[in-house]
Amino acid sequence: QVQVVEFGGGLVQAGGSLRLSCAASGSIFTIDVMGWYRQPPGKQRELVAAITSGGSTNYADFVKGRFTISRDNAKNTVYLQMSSLKPEDTAVYYCNARRVGVPSFSYWGQGTQVTVSS
């Protein structure tokens, strides 16, 4: 069983910055992909950014150039540096830890609220 916990959410003004962190614990297997998803009010969860254990990244178009994802494989920790925040970025941000190989798994954190005010 893998535990996934997010930290760093909060209230920030438009144009500001925020850094989210997520730690996954309890896995003796490589976590192939760690990613950030978000769920705005009344909308479905969507991908924000993801990063593999090898450092390959994938960003949603709406955050390219503003957000940066990184990870520390030794600590099974992923970070999301968010800059130039917009009110549209307001959402609950969820961390996901996934293993593609066998055994495979996918775990979600409890989410952390990010609110961007104008």
Describe this structure as you would to a colleague.
The protein has strands at 3-7, 10-13, 18-25, 33-39, 46-52, 57-59, 67-72, 77-82, 91-99, 105-108, 112-117. The protein has 118 residues and is mostly beta strands. Strands 2, 4, 5, 6, 9, 10 and 11 form a 7-stranded mixed beta sheet that branches. It is globular.
Tag the structure with descriptive keywords:
11 strands; 118 residues; mainly beta; four-stranded antiparallel beta sheet
Question: Helical residue percent?
Answer: under 10%
Mean pLDDT: 96
Largest sheet properties: 7 strands, mixed
| Model regions low in confidence, pLDDT < 50 over at least 5 residues | none
What series of H and E elements makes up the topology?
EEEEEEEEEEE
Judging from the principal axes of the Cα atoms, what is the shape? Answer: globular
